[in-house]
UniProtKB/TrEMBL annotation:
Region of interest (Disordered), ranges: 153-212
Keyword Iron recorded: no
Name of the molecule in the record: PPPDE domain-containing protein
Gene3D superfamilies for this protein: PPPDE domains
Gene Ontology terms describing biological process: protein deubiquitination; proteolysis
Organism: Fagus sylvatica
Keyword field: Hydrolase, Protease
Domain PPPDE span(s) in chain numbering: 15-144
InterPro entries found in the cross-reference section: PPPDE_dom, PPPDE_sf
Amino acid sequence: MLCRKGYRSNDAGTVPVYLNVYDLTPINGYAYWFGLGVYHSGVQVHGIEYAFGAHEYPTTGIFEGEPKHCDGFRYRKTVFIGKTDLGPVEVRAVMEELAGEYRGNAYNLITKNCNHFCNDACIRLTGNPIPSWINRLARIATLNSTKVRHHRIEEKPCEEEKKKITSDSNRFNSSNSSSSSSSSPSNGIRRGRSRSRRALPPSSPLILSSSS
């Protein structure tokens, strides 16, 4: 497998690199005009379109096909990304480099989808990323997920503090009740389990497992 460490900018190339964009849902007909939508994309170079899809095996999910004809998706438009000076064999070597990272069973609609692959491929071929609107919903979903996790981390100590304050208050009330009942026998004895209540053990730190 050929390894390439340096990537050339589009100014040095002669071969055009295109991004073919497809609609995944009819809603895109409206969402597109607001800079949103759910899209599939493929990188077209040397007359071949390279794309990434999901399957259940630990082998690459990168596949090639005829440009602007991807089964199951409706073609929307082609975006010029830049130029490359790589030949067909070198381009295929780039795809082989990406093959290990983009396995079929590693596909994730939010963090590792076809648009992530196309962005990486375009940067390696031309030095230019794909337009931001193509994968905007995935970035929004990732941002919201991060916010929710941080929110939960911040709320955890507050919940433990509330439990501790409640526990201390119950013990204090129980102590006062016990003293009152000893000095005033006529008052009924209030049963409370707070005497034998154990202090809440310190909570274990919240550990977030890494997402795919």
